[in-house]
Task: structure prediction
Amino acid sequence: MSAHSISSIREGLAAKTFSAEEIAREALAFAEAENPKTNAYLALSPERALAAARAVDAKLAKGEDPGALAGVPVAVKDVIVTRGLKTTCASKMLENYVPPYDATAVIRLEQAGGVIVGKANCDEFAMGSSNENSAFGPVRNPMALDRVPGGSSGGSAAVVAQGTAVVSLGSDTGGSIRQPASFCGISGVTPTYGRVSRYGLTAFASSLDHIGPFARSVRDAATLLGVIAGRDEMDATSAFSPVPDYTAALTGDVRGLKIGLPREYFEGLASETGDRIHAAVETLRKLGCEVVDIQLPHTQYAIACYYIIATAEASANLARYDGVRYTLRSASAQTLSDMYRLSREEGFGAEVKRRIMLGTYVLSAGYYDAYYLKAQRVRTLIAQDFAQAFEKVDAIVAPVSPFPAFKLGEKVDDPVSMYLSDIYTITGSLAGIPCMSVPCGNTSEGLPVGLQILTKHFDESTMFRVADAYERASK
Amino acid sequence: MKLSEQDVQRVAELANLALTPEEIARMTRDLDGILSHIDKLNELDTTNVEPMAQVLFDAGETATLRPDVERTPLSNAEAVANAAVSGGGYYKVPRVIER
Result:
């Protein structure tokens, strides 16, 4: 199971080596057996998986095209709604929430023949960098079980690294796809803001939220993104720009491409992570890329900017959990005011409360201009840094995280240092540009390191082209 | 300290969170640390910089309007299926207006 790719399943189905139902049963059994090690799935969905697989087999029997993801076992982060399948956002608040509709990305991947095998664990409401903020227990990194898988999409990364799913969907607000991908040694993609519809993605910070793919190869990530991307009238922020065939960009040829190294990202990166990144840059140079130094001078302000904007938007988005509409109401609430206050106190975990509090504070009377408006202005400067850089280069490469996967419990008591570790991923999120993590070797302890590749808006093709060429060269 | 426990208590009321005294103390410490880092933004003069509310939008203002045609909405039963407490097709809440 863990050796399969989208294309190996397509070939196996075509040659009748196996049926989609057989693959689905194998994936479900493997997931059930492996899950006690990692806690990466919150729930498996055997009925839905088998129904989807049988539909693929029926299409094949009739000689119809079964779709780009035919028979491929997929996991979906539990902040993305699935009709009739519990979607908890890894929160006690939504422990019993059964959505009445499917997210657009879910509909599209099933229409393409994808087989949803389960819902992946994550940090509560996608808030965290280690997956330790799940109300249903942390996820363990399949590469090193005493370590975190990263977050917030830790389960989505772990199931793909473990091989219990071939690809998965995660969500990214400030690095929640790229960082776990790097910690688990797989590829993870944050597409351009608006490239994938967020209809059905539980809102965290609306100006920053993205849905994106995880995969064990750049090609599979590109294929899955191609399936879920594109305009959706159910999400007014989804982009109209046509979706190219991303796999057509995977030529292996990157000669003449200009690659920028942002000086600010490499200062103080004197670690094994830095060594791996520098070696990857050398590989790209050997492949014919021209490597140039660039500057992104406002990088040092990105974390402060992000934690104002993201928490302000979160405090508004999470106001909907009021004890009325979403399953949980405090049993001790007698008055209307207590229903709100006690339900939210009992339903939310510590990190979610911390972010709601910070967001409420920065939006409160007298502080709006000093914090939220100021952060929006700084966000413009950060986006301009990238726009200026892309006048000189085709792609930027950088680290994903300052360090590889850390031990469970190692950083839980220090929220500020946890926030600071998001520095390399937050800038791309604020600018809304496509960025991805591709594996670039391991530390001496055997912990995966990720190389981040960033390109300009809607230029996912160049990002995939560089990542794929690097992946081929590093194998 | 950038903020006191009283400030945190006030924000908790705005956010409709019934924090415990222990949570208030911890939250005061955590928020203070984060706000101290956030002060860094004051190093930048942003007087003539436009605020960015929407990162990117690639079509005209009316492009997102869909044709005004009827659609089948969620049924009443589906709409209240996830209610904490419901009855007669409605959400039920504690008494709102006190006599």
